[in-house]
Amino acid sequence: MITIIQQRDKCIGCNYCVEFAPQRWVMSKKDGKSVLIGAKEKNKFWSVKVHEDEKDINRKAAAACPVKIITVA
Ligand code: SF4
After folding, report:
1. Residues 6 or more apart from 58 whose CB is under 8 A from it?
2. In what helix (H) or strand (E) does residue 57 lie, and over which residues does it extend?
3. Residue 52, SS3 per DSSP
4. Cβ distance 50 to 1 under 8 Å?
5. What per-residue confidence (pLDDT) applies to 46?
6. Residue 71, beta-bridge partner list
7. Overall pTM surpassing 0.70 (yes/no)
8. Quick one: which atom of ligand 1 is closest to the CA of 11?
9. According to the model, what pLDDT value does residue 73 have?
10. Which mutation among 69, 71, 72 tests ligand 1's pocket best, with the greatest number of atoms within 8 A of CB?
């Protein structure tokens, strides 16, 4: 398993994470920020544990994120 983490309040809504990993990210129509699907929030950090097979695409999403708020560990 890997863990994906997003510091959601700093998201600028650029949509890159959704483009790289559409099965794990979606844009919110409410506030224009991306939502990490399945994640739970703790102290403004949203995290979810997923299967290894999502690692590469989410690493690409993390690398593309202009404000560097996505971590894949
Ligand atoms: S790539 Fe980063 S800034 Fe852009 S929508 Fe995703 S989390 Fe937000």
Report:
1. 2, 4, 17, 20, 21, 24, 50, 70, 72
2. helix 55-64
3. helix
4. yes
5. 98
6. 5
7. yes
8. 8
9. 96
10. 69
Give every CB contact of residue 65 below 8 A, 6+ residues apart in sequence. 14, 16, 17
Q: What is the mean pLDDT of each run of 10 residues along the chain (73 residues)?
A: 98 98 98 98 98 98 98 97
Query: How far apart are the CA of 12 and the centre of ligand 1, in A?
Result: 6
Number of domains in the chain: 1
Contact between 5 and 59 under an 8 Å Cβ cutoff? The reply is no
* Range(s) of the domain holding residue 68: 2-72
Sole residue written with tokens 């690398």: 63
Q: What is the DSSP letter of 58?
A: H
* Residue 27, both tokens: 């844009």
- For residue 29, give the CATH number of its domain: 3.30.70.20
Is residue 69 within 6 Å of ligand 1 at its C-beta? yes
Instruction: Supply 13's token pair.
Output: 């809504």
Q: Could you tell me if 52 and 59 are in contact, meaning their C-beta atoms sit under 8 angstroms apart?
A: no
